[in-house]
Amino acid sequence: MITDTILIIGANGQLGSVLTKELQLIHGKSNIIATDVYLNSNFDGTFELLDATDIKAIQKIVTKYSINQIYHLAAILSAKGEEKPLWTWDMNMKMMLNVFEVARLSNVKKIFFPSSIAVFGDDAPLISTPQSAFLNPATVYGISKAAGENWAQYYFIKYGLDIRSIRYPGVIGYQSMPGGGTTDYAVDIYHSAVKGESYSCFLNAETKLPMIYMEDAIRATIELMQAPIENIKTRTSYNLGAMSFNPSEIFDEIKKLYLNFEIEYNPDFRQTIADKWPKSIDDSEAQKDWGWKPRFNLKSMTSLMLKKLEEKYNTIK
Ligand code: SER
């Protein structure tokens, strides 16, 4: 059996930091090479600094460790991306194409490339958005992910590179903080509640968006990557559903446990982004092809998030 030696690009990020630990458990610590553009002094395992816009630097690490799988998680997200559109496009496309090219020219057999609900725009049905809906993304991040999905399919068809992808909803976890996204409020709100602060929400009360608890997001990623190759029928990116709620619903759920918690709504430019995103997702292709099934809903996620953050902030009631 060939041992998988896995390179993770963006290992310090919201998803990367949690996924890296899970992959270390599955494949053994010595087979996981974590990288990012900044050092993580608490990291337990093999860590290298890597700027993925530098193709030679990626090549060097792939050769040094005989890498045969890559999880490319680094990207500029939806809200931050709107501050510098052309830079965001350059960054996201360059990093992604560098990874695909290095893989094609070396021994890398399998790649994970995350996409997002941001690939959809208001020409798609925004309720129960289907897998094959028309894509007219309104953010640079969404445009780069939609292009990335097509590049992934292109590399699979043309070069046989086994690139697999998920269109993540907003990811919510207690372990790490998101950075620069439109769904970030749904993580921030739990931190405010546990710290005893009131929360100022940058989306209005009624903005429903698809979300997923971190544990489900990680399990989906692993299940997709472990599925037999013949089961992977979608070579752009799979829709993935778990739960949907709006700020008022998550607030009500938190308030059941934090009776004095307060919220005010101060929508900013991120409201315009969220208004064009799906409210719920049809993930029947992921269910059919590799057996996807979420385990967490708003209620079970909320009780876990609050418990874990109470431990973190040492505010156990
Ligand atoms: N969570 C991401 C964002 O808000 C969506 O992929 O940008």
Structure overview:
A 6-stranded parallel β-sheet has the order 3-2-1-4-5-7, sandwiched between helices. The mean pLDDT is 97. α1 (14-27) packs across α7 (214-226) and α2 packs parallel to α4. By secondary structure, it is α/β, with parallel strands linked by helices. It folds into 2 domains: 6-170 and 213-239, 3-Layer(aba) Sandwich (Rossmann fold), CATH 3.40.50; 173-210 and 243-279 and 296-313, UDP-galactose 4-epimerase, domain 1 (Alpha-Beta Complex), CATH 3.90.25. The chain starts with 5 loop residues before the first strand and ends with a helix. It is globular and about 55 Å long. Helices cover 41% and strands 15% of the residues. Serine is lined by residues 77-78, 116-118, 141, 168, 170, 181-183.
